[in-house]
Amino acid sequence: MAPWPNRVIAGRYEFEGVEYQLGINEPSRGHALHGLLAWQDWCPVESDESSAILSTVIQARSGYPFRLDVQVSYQLDLSGLHTTVTATNTGPGSAPYGAAGHPYLIAGEGRVDDWILELPARKVQQVTADLLVPTGVSDVSDDRRYDFVSPRPIGSTTLDHAFTDLVRDDEGYSTARLTTWDGSGTSMTWGRDCPWVQIHTADLPDVESSRAGLAVEPMTCPPNAFNTRTDLIVLLPWRRWPSSTSLPSPAARDSSAPPPAWSSSPPAKVVSASPQQSPAPSANCPARPCLAEASPRPGSTAMMPSKQQPMWRFSAAARRDREKTHRHRPCSPPSWMYSSTTPSCTRKFSARHPSWSATRASRT
């Protein structure tokens, strides 16, 4: 979901002194929902047996007069399925931006009521019961319905709320786990680029399909961030912002393997980027400028971790050695969009060249 996750209340917002009205695609509540990518056509940039990269363009329009190139990469390896969404502002001015995924997790047999949720979030955004308009943020301990820091059954609880103040491991990752009573199930992991997560119990009028899965949506900003500016990303021209999530494989979950190093995200409020020329039209999609020419070829050393040496097996010491090795390498941002060294390059070069950074609006 981009260029905003969740809802813009009433579809109205103001940016840089100009008021805008988005199309209303949630008529029952009167909001602009889930961004502008749902019905987009996507161009294949490259793919092989374990990965794929797709690209599309959000064209400027009356409610969102900003142009973004968006790429989504999928990588399947022994540690799980890893997704990265990267937006590049190709327009002449700054653009408000947020992103999220919208997967539904299924723990096993039964429905949401039968499963156990572990969600490492200490705060929840309260909303009105009818229109889901945000009203403030409170501690989950104030209302046990929203407290899943320790695993417990969801039961009949209805959730369509954003959570924040996430508990993270030593690598900066948060993990939500959904299990059955015998301990089997699934999980989702995300980094610091997503300080919020929406949890939705998928309550629908149709009894047969209602509460059949649990939506776990790591988000770069909360609902209605276009108005509150809480964690809103402001992309300057030719700046980009990546956000990543992982669905660990059963083997990785059983062994408590850490997420692959290449999927880690830049520190909050900092993203590596530099001005660049508009890429030439791609052979896969001649009508628009994909970034195919700037992306590594399948099987190249710049691709994601190889089967022979998967990054998720590297120790923390080995990753630090790689950072030292690549610290002073001349970097061309397009060439390391999907490189295993992206996290280290991001931290080193964005610190040395502040002009290469996008900005994130401060919390309010």
What does this structure look like?
It contains 4 helices and 22 strands. The chain has 2 domains: 1-100 and 223-245 and 259-364, no CATH class; 101-219, Distorted Sandwich (Beta-galactosidase, Chain A, domain 5), CATH 2.70.98.10. Strand 12 and strand 13 form a beta hairpin. The model is unreliable at 257-357 (pLDDT under 50). With 364 residues, the chain is mainly beta. It has helices at residues 225-228, 250-255, 316-326, 342-352; strands spanning 7-8, 12-15, 18-21, 32-33, 43-47, 51-58, 68-77, 80-89, 95-97, 104-105, 116-118, 121-127, 134-139, 152-153, 160-166, 174-179, 185-190, 196-200, 214-219, 233-235, 240-248, 359-360. A 9-stranded antiparallel sheet has the order 5-6-7-8-21-17-16-11-14. Strands 10-19-18-15-12-13 form a 6-stranded antiparallel sheet, with no helix packed on it. The radius of gyration is 20 Å and the shape is globular.
